[in-house]
Amino acid sequence: MSKRKIGWGLLFIAAAIFLVVNHLGLLSADISVLRVFLAAAFLCGLVDGIKNRSFPGIFFSIAFLWATIDNVLGVPELSLWILLSAALFLSIGFSFLFPESYKRKYEKHMHDQKWKDYEDGDKVGEHQTVIDETASEEVYCFNRFGATTKYVNTSNLRSARLENHFGEMKVYFDHAEITQNQITISVDNSFGEMQLYFPRHWNVQVNVNATLADVSEKNAKASAEFPRVLLTGNTSLGEVAIFYI
């Protein structure tokens, strides 16, 4: 059993205990059943945000948790608009002050040319990048505050890491080939939209954690067993849309 499922289970058990204790009058604050379950969900989002080092996941979970049980926490009552605005500004500010650790982690691969970094973080506006087939067995794409379209052309794709923050990223894999039985593509999307275009015959298994976000699959895909693509990662306050072409 995964730690994520264990965490959810323990939180809802705690919510049930809280309801009983509150109904017996052992707590001074009165809170509804709906608020208890919402608080449990937002607390899970906060734990996921801390675990994944996602500033939007952390601050927006705190904002919603504050608005849900402010009377229990004994904190000043603030409007949801103020809380969400503060969460947005904090997420942006901390993203600038503390660049994501995963970015530093993958930068070390640049020295041995194993990973090729196509970073568009300083480019504002719409642009396109064609990833050369001789340099893209393992692909790392990064976008911030912009709109970018990337075309992965390779005869031996081994893995990919896709980062999109406060922007829009489109990545086309329809000219990429996989020679292994299985590869992993990891995504990290926050405050933005990521569109991924896969060949219809790829067996894509989606396991992306969504925090106040949406993950969707468009069009039908074939029922082939191989090549198998494990799509993992996280999205918060945004959308990851998967298209089969």
Question: Taking strands numbered 1, 2, ... along the chain, how are they ordered across the largest sheet?
Answer: 1-3-5-7-11-9
User: Quick one: how many beta strands?
Assistant: 12
Estimate the global geometry from the Cα principal axes. Answer: elongated
Q: Runs with pLDDT <50, length 5+?
A: 101-125
> Count of helical segments?
6
Q: Helix/strand-derived class?
A: alpha/beta
C-alpha-based Rg, rounded: 21 Å
Distance between the termini: 34 Å
Summarize the structure.
The protein has 245 residues and is an alpha/beta fold. Helices cover 34% and strands 32% of the residues. It has six helices and twelve strands.
Question: What descriptive keywords fit this protein?
Answer:
245 residues, six-stranded parallel beta sheet, 6 helices, single chain, alpha/beta
Task: Walk me through the structure.
There is one protein chain. This protein is α/β, with parallel strands linked by helices. It contains six helices and twelve strands. It has helices at 3-23, 33-52, 55-68, 70-73, 80-97, 101-107; strands spanning 116-119, 126-131, 138-144, 147-152, 159-165, 168-172, 182-190, 193-198, 203-211, 214-218, 228-236, 239-244. Strands 1-3-5-7-11-9 form a six-stranded parallel sheet, covered by helices on one side. A six-stranded parallel sheet has the order 2-4-6-8-12-10, with no helix packed on it. Helix 2 packs antiparallel against helix 3 and helix 3 runs antiparallel to helix 5 (80-97). The protein is elongated and about 65 Å long. The two termini are 34 Å apart. Residues 101-125 have low confidence and may be disordered.
